[in-house]
Amino acid sequence: MYLCYIDESGTPDVPGNTSHYVLAGLSIPIWHWKTCDNEIFAVKRRYGLETSEMHVAWMMRPYFEQSRIPDFNALNYRERRSRVEALRRAELLRLQRSGKPNLYKQTRKNYQKTEAYIHLSYSERRDFIAEVAQCIRSWGFARLFAECIDKVYFDPARATTTVDEQAFEQIVSRFERYLQVIGDRGDDFGLLIHDNNQTVARRHTELMKKFHQLGTLWTTLHHIIETPLFVDSELTSLVQVSDLCGYALRRYLENREEELFDIIFQRADRKDSVVVGVRHFSNRSCSCKICDSHKPKSGPLLQP
Fold this sequence. Notes:
Layout: E1 2-9, E2 20-29, H1 33-46, H2 56-59, H3 64-67, H4 77-97, H5 101-114, H6 122-138, E3 143-150, H7 163-182, E4 190-195, H8 198-214, E5 229-231, H9 237-255, H10 259-264, E6 270-271, E7 274-275, E8 278-281, H11 289-293
Parallel strand pairs: 1-4, 3-8, 4-5
Antiparallel strand pairs: 1-2, 2-3, 6-7
């Protein structure tokens, strides 16, 4: 049995507030699940995050309050948290009195989303994410599947599916093909474990039922069982790991941030030297590392 943990990065709305939408799935054999979970927990514990969700986009933001605290890095975790919380309470009180309800609401949301990480400096948060990424790199048994859609080239008028539905069908198809390739006895099965996004859970469940009956555009399903299990990412570390993968892919494509991308992309599913598990849906002239990886060492571009 193989478990494929799925999460998204960016918004599927067209145009939305991100240029790319990424759906990423990280597959691991079930017999390695406990080892992987323990490794992530050990990294979290070193940074005081053992009970917290890892949400990379919120962790990688600078927190202005920390820069206002003298010798912040010299303080222990408890002191750092206390000082940041005091500054944030004062700022929320000021905004309540300012007559700017929208700014107050957004600031309060930002504080809630980042509360778990305020005891870590920006460099420590970057180090934490890098350590988790190195865990992924070391998992030679893991395979990364992802559909990275540049929404500039996605035409809703011509498409037969939405952005997130196209991405989901691609992940399902590639995971199924992977299971077909490795399943020499025909009894290697897979299960999808998806972050519980209420807006897509019912739609993707219905899609999966259709895939089981009719197949996807690319393959019939013989190895993926059931519909996806939708779980709370706060309680499931390996869904959080797929969040890191999606974030790294999207930040590379949108901003050419290579550090995290180069680490996790080593786990992309390959056939010989050609990446088959990760695709960048873009124009044919794209020369990013993902598109380039679809080319054999010699010969024409394989990506449609």
